[in-house]
Amino acid sequence: xxxxxxxxxxxxxxxxxxxxxxxxxxxxxxxxxxxxxxxxxxxxxxxxxxxxxxxxxxxxxxxxxxxxxxxxxxxxxxxxxxxxxxxxxxxxxxxxxxxxxxxxxxxxxxxxxxxxxxxxxxxxxxxxxxxxxxxxxxxxxxxxxxxxxxxxxxxxxxxxxxxxxxxxxxxxxxxxxxxxxxxxxxxxxxxxxxxxxxxxxxxxxxxxxxxxxxxxxxxxxxxxxxxxxxxxxxxxxxxxxxxxxxxxxxxxxxxxxxxxxxxxxxxxxxxxxxxxxxxxxxxxxxxxxxxxxxxxxxxxxxxxxxxxxxxxxxxxxxxxxxxxxxxxxxxxxxxxxxxxxxxxxxxxxxxxxxxxxxxxxxxxxxxxxxxxxxxxxxxxxxxxxxxxxxxxxxxxxxxxxxxxxxxxxxx
Length: 411
Ligand code: PMP
Known about the structure:
CATH superfamily of the largest domain: Type I PLP-dependent aspartate aminotransferase-like (Major domain)
Bound molecules: 4'-deoxy-4'-aminopyridoxal-5'-phosphate
Shape: globular
Distance between the termini: 29 Å
Helix content: 25-40%
Strand content: 15-25%
Low-confidence stretches: 1-5
CATH architecture of the largest domain: 3-Layer(aba) Sandwich
Number of strands: 17
Largest sheet: 7 strands, mixed
Number of helices: 14
Strand order of the largest sheet: 4-10-9-8-7-5-6
CATH topology of the largest domain: Aspartate Aminotransferase, domain 2
């Protein structure tokens, strides 16, 4: 199948922007199908980080010298690029180390001071541990309880059952936009609208949505939206929390230190304005400059093109995998991102992934930080192939051929 031109974009040239994808693993060309875990980085992102350390390295918001100004301008420039990319305001975007930090920030600064015994938090069965454990910690400390929205047989949220859970004691609903295991795309706009009608604050984990879809956070209608930079071709240790301004104004700081203050006296401290109030300490400056470059890169491709390309790869991979005897795919949501979890009869997920690695194919095996979802399916682990726009249709075929080969070895 020659489908390197899924749209007006020459995807072979796009792939060539990613130096790592030319390497070999165990003497075989690398097939990187683990982008839901972390995305590969284009040359421009690597160059932006390199350029910062080579030519501009200084701390932000402190020094008046030229380098300090350049570093601050580049860092704040990255915030503004990110804000524009997601159609939100820069002063509503708290830069942090990733989704895990962003969700903990909401848990500790918004939920912990507000929730009380008798209150409830609603989560869904498909959440990543990063969107479960912080709420459990809050629940333990406040006496709130956690309710769970379940899935239908396709691995989609059962919306009627979800809305039935949204009773008056529910103060907060936190859910993922896209499942990192099933690929299910949740109708977050509709869900947030229903929650809002009932006065429930909504948090959306956008880790797996931001890299793969046209994302207008303002249009989602949530209260908080978390993203992580390393999955969207940016460096690790970068991410952001978008929050409505009224929340940021009302929330106490999460972490205290430099950068987040206006004035410190031993009698008390005047905090900086949001978002800086939530950004104590020296940030990952080079990382955010790299993330700014990643946003430029994705914008130059166009997220609608990225999405269309990945949908074509998903359709191809699903079709080919469905032909493999004894292979079960977990989740066939009507709206689905390019993530395929599967098991093959008679083969353990880790054995399959280990043998595939020897063929040069990188997939993930395990619980994918989603134990409750594994419990739902009654399996300890699955294999997960997650694709990105820089993958190819030839790789899909080579992956399925490798899977057939290693499966024979395990039979
Ligand atoms: N939520 C989801 C849905 C994820 O896929 C991940 C990363 N696997 C996270 C949260 C956590 O992201 P990070 O570790 O980058 O903070």
